[in-house]
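anyone seen this seq b4? input:
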Amino acid sequence: MDDSERNQIQQSAEAAAACEAAAREAEKGGVDAARPAAQPEAAAQIEAAAWPGAQPEAAATPLTWHAPKKQRRGKSKILRALLLTLYWLLQWTWGIVQNVAGLVMFVAAGRGKARGYHGAAVRNWNLSGSMTLGMFILMDRGHGDDILAHEWGHTIQSIILGPLYLLVVGLPSIIWAGLPAFDRYRSTKHVPYDRLYCEGWATRLGRRTIVSKRQK
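predicted toks r here
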């Protein structure tokens, strides 16, 4: 028996003694017998002592796959196109009544170049205030992005309510905005314009367009 064989036998004996000592400590302390298996470093040291020539197995590295940026952009464009198609389809089927009226107003009263806003058609006009019928928005020239987002919220109400839009949203909005009595009430009581149920609803629906614009 040469020196290398004697060293291997001695190391194996030491490893066995270490295992027995660990088992005795586990029994004395009431530790679960499975505890040593939860300590990979100690187990690796014992295994290395018992088998000096063995190489520890490398931990498996999980493989992850990320879609290329161009592919993600392509999917987002397809999703946007589908949503816009659904938006226009619902406007001209379920909400066709207010869209026909809106188209007439858009052509007759609109001034300047038309522009798009999340599927809606927007033009300025010479009257004070802003108005939305279906997917058509007529804007006061002095109004900014917050009002435009609010008016876009009315276009979503058109999709949700369909033929009930003019009764549930249109008529109450005209009365709330047009009657001097309500104008005085808002001024003296400091009541915000979107306190009316349908106006507050439109503001909440329009907030998502402001958030998405700021995130870009």
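Residues 76 and 82 are 10 Å apart (CA to CA). Strands lie at 111-117, 120-125, 131-133, 136-140. kinda curious what u guys think
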